[in-house]
Amino acid sequence: MVRDGSVTVRVPAKVNLQLAVGAARPDGYHELVSVFHAVSLHDDVTVAPSDALRVVVEGEEAAGVPADETNLAARAVLLLAGRLGREADVLVHLRKGIPAAGGMAGGSADAAGALLAADALWGAGLERAELLELAAELGSDVPFALVGGTAVGLGRGERLTPALARGHFEWVLALAEEGLSTPAVYAEADRLRAGRVLPEPRPSERLMAALRAGDPVALARALENDLQPAAASLAPGLHATLQAGEDGGALGGVVSGSGPTCAFLAADAEAADELAGALLDSGTCRAVRRAHGPVAGARVVEGGAREGRGQ
Ligand SMILES: C[C@](O)(CO)[C@H](O)COP(=O)(O)OP(=O)(O)OC[C@H]1O[C@@H](n2ccc(N)nc2=O)[C@H](O)[C@@H]1O
Ligand SMILES: Nc1ncnc2c1ncn2[C@@H]1O[C@H](COP(=O)(O)OP(=O)(O)OP(=O)(O)O)[C@@H](O)[C@H]1O
User: Are 208 and 102 in the same domain?
Assistant: First the structure.
């Protein structure tokens, strides 16, 4: 939905190629090494002048997304307006293609998109570093949605360094019937690992080498996620989905972030199409999406004077 004076930003979903989770910190967050990878599944966030802050949510993945001030995109607009000392009098329109509570950072993507769109609409001209700082206040995954590509996140995931990566990867995403709550999955991981001495999370050398080489076979073998046992403990159907991906010819598969979406790597576009069909036929998921990565972070696609600003 585009109207006069509006700005639309496209924001990608993410898959975590590696998610190494350390011990819980005193602030309740876990120390991470998160290798983020932006994929072509996306949301479109449109911000337009209005008499008050309003939220409208549409699109094939709109179910379960709040259309009020608790929406992360609305919180982003309120945060930026507060920083600028102005009213947040805009209509925020979300077209959701990223599943909610799916482990693909859909809410974070919308927050990043709303920040960039409102910045452009209001002509605020924030520096990239300022936008990244506001993004980190909104959530650990929000800075990456601005940056995109493939990047390593440290700390609680918000301190980003671009990864040396080449090539283009074909993904098949298996979407689950029910979402999973991110805090609940971290809490389940703590419960499952109670009493164990946890090593400090470190970037996987073989994953980094696979990315540098642009080698999908090596990348598929290196996918790892410390939250996977916790996600599968809360959603036991994930075992069958992962097995169906393997049986359907995936090079490798992993639960994305806190789940329950499963991400499978395919050798090429043709293999990905076949795998998508096999996963759908398996009856182990609600829906299947094809995607490729890496793609750019949040970028203005309509309206606004500074297209591509987020990259
Ligand atoms: C699972 C991931 O998606 C992987 O990228 C992220 O770690 C989650 O990022 P997010 O949804 O942006 O998370 P936030 O909104 O910052 O935090 C939500 C909740 O997740 C848990 N959380 C999040 C990040 C982190 N490093 N440790 C945590 O324990 C905390 O319970 C926190 O209260
Ligand atoms: N714009 C939004 N899109 C989706 N969910 C939102 C949004 N704003 C708030 N929410 C709420 O946040 C919850 C988590 O949503 P989100 O889609 O970000 O989860 P996620 O993809 O699992 O997150 P992550 O991968 O960052 O852990 C939803 O269940 C919903 O109630």
Answer: no
